Amino acid sequence: MGSLLFLLGVLQLLAAARAAYKQWIPNTNFETASNWDKERAPCASDVIHFEKNKVLSVFVGSPHVVTEMFLPLNGELLLAPGAGFAAFDGSWDAGCGSGAVLRFADAEQRSWFDPALWQDVSPAGGQEPAGRIFSVDEERVPCQYDDVIFQPETSFRVNLDSSQQVIRLRSISLMGQELSSAEAWAKYLGGPSAPRQFHGNGTLQVTGARCPHSSGCACGNTQDGHRICASLLGAAGCPALPCQSPLRPLGHCCGVCGAVVTLDFTPDFDLQKYQDRVVQAWLSLPKYEGVQMAISKVHSAQTFLGLLPRGSVPVIQIVLVDGGAGEQAGTAAQQLATDLVGDIAQHGAALGISSSRMEVATGSTLSGQAGGRAARRIAAGTVLGLLSGLLVLGGVLFLYRKGKLRPCPLRLHRLRDQAEDAASPEPASDKGFDNPMFDVEPLDAGSVEEAPQDLAPQAPPMFYLNPLYDPSETET
Q1: What is the pLDDT of residues 211-237, one digit of tens each?
Q2: What per-residue confidence (pLDDT) applies to 120?
Q3: Torsion sign (Cα): 40, 43, 45, 50
Q4: Rounded to the nearest 10 degrees, what angle do helices 271-278 and 331-351 cross at?
């Protein structure tokens, strides 16, 4: 029995190691200073305004004395034990002064797909320390097999506008209660708080399922990648980078200096084990102190001749970045990528890796970027040439079908006759002509006089009947 309990404990630890926990940061609590336009919580002599037409859920964690308060038409106040409101008796409050009008901030635009509003946490809810592993931008938002945590004793308002009809999660924790089944989540959605906490055209779906593959699972946020980047970058756009040709990893909003290693894998590949191998064997070395890594399964688009899409294939993407500046930008990441590719060449089969390829972008002009750019230019020229040929062919076909382009017929028999005439010209002294009713080969000039004598004995007598001449009249 003890061995069984130990085995179950180990399996739970492995599942927790592979799971990702993401916690929502902002809240709509009454005591949170950033939720008010004066950047402070209300005091006794203040006048409190909630927008009349705003839908709100506000958690109140302690008792408050108020002078005047205007409430929304569609909202709720969630009172913690001992919390509440009392009328101000007019006594002096040294910390409040004469009071002011405080308005509750608008929480409608806090988007589910804003990476800045999420943080990675441990299964217990504590914030994960900043380490050597980071996530590409699309994976900083909850993925389809992640666990989502809203902090206990907090209220919130989340905009679920999405390009997906359903946003899938493994579980969701609210008010200290974990909901990990479709039935439990449906029951919560039927309660009074859910419509005031979640709004927008998207729908959350709790599946309770973990990623079934040892090679990992794709995040599933690609369809909302544009929302993620718009929330993250705003109008500022991507920052300038010191490398000449920044790389753009799949699922990331901006380019990076460093290296991207792409792995083709077999069913034996284990993503968590390989990540641990890289961290222990390389990232722990002093020479790679400033290097960070993001590793995950992504879907790489496939095309025919670089033009026609033909689906996608799952690959493992490793993004390596460092803190180098100027010409040193990306050089440590490049060296680590070279080490990884060399290790895969020796041990790839045992690790479940069938092949690997590497791209590099550094601040140094000697890093091989020129060759990469030349190859890309050749590929781009080939693609443009094919496009031009297809456009010309399409234009000719279009004009032909419209009747504006007619083919020129080749008169082959005339060309053949002309070729035969040029090959065997007739003598200049021949003044005759061809009789279509009497086709014979012309005779040589030297035998013209002899021909009648030779042919006379063989030629039978010829008679012609004239219908206008009657032989009987002649006899008479």
Answers
A1: 999 999 999 999 999 999 999 998 889
A2: 94
A3: positive
A4: 130
